[in-house]
Design goal:
With 134 residues, this protein is mainly alpha-helical. The chain contains 4 helices and no strands.
């Protein structure tokens, strides 16, 4: 009788320990999944801004100070675009109108420190790139 009760207790303890280990693994996996999503959402805007900045640097041969200013302007634009997408999920026309205003404002800021000739060169490059992709 004593031996069978000990076996029952040991099996019970082993099963509980196993279930706790499984729960720990599940909770850890869920936490890591949330961390991954939050990191990927933050870096998406930064990656887009960096990619665009690298392209502008390549076209205009900017120095470090100008590169930093362009990156800051484009990063601010990308963050605003993310906010606008959330605000205007259902209304594409309003989103497009807001995007035009945002693009003009960003271009004005960039024109202040790049100058008119460089902005024309940059716009010509992107226009040609759009035409080639069609």
């Amino acid at each position: 009788m004593i031996i069978s009760s000990l076996r029952f207790k040991n099996n019970f303890v082993i099963k509980i320990n196993y279930k706790l280990k499984v729960m720990k693994h599940i909770i850890t996996s869920i936490v890591l999944l949330f961390i991954t999503f939050s990191v990927s959402a933050q870096s998406k805007e930064e990656k887009k801004a960096q990619k665009r900045t690298d392209e502008i640097v390549k076209v205009l041969s900017l120095d470090k100070e100008e590169t930093a200013k362009v990156y800051e302007a484009l990063l601010a634009k990308e963050k605003k675009i993310t906010v606008l997408k959330e605000e205007h999920k259902d209304n594409k026309e309003t989103f497009k109108a807001e995007m035009k205003v945002l693009t003009k404002a960003t271009n004005r800021v960039m024109k202040d420190f790049l100058g008119g000739e460089r902005m024309k060169k940059m716009h010509a490059h992107f226009r040609a790139k759009r035409e080639n992709s069609k």
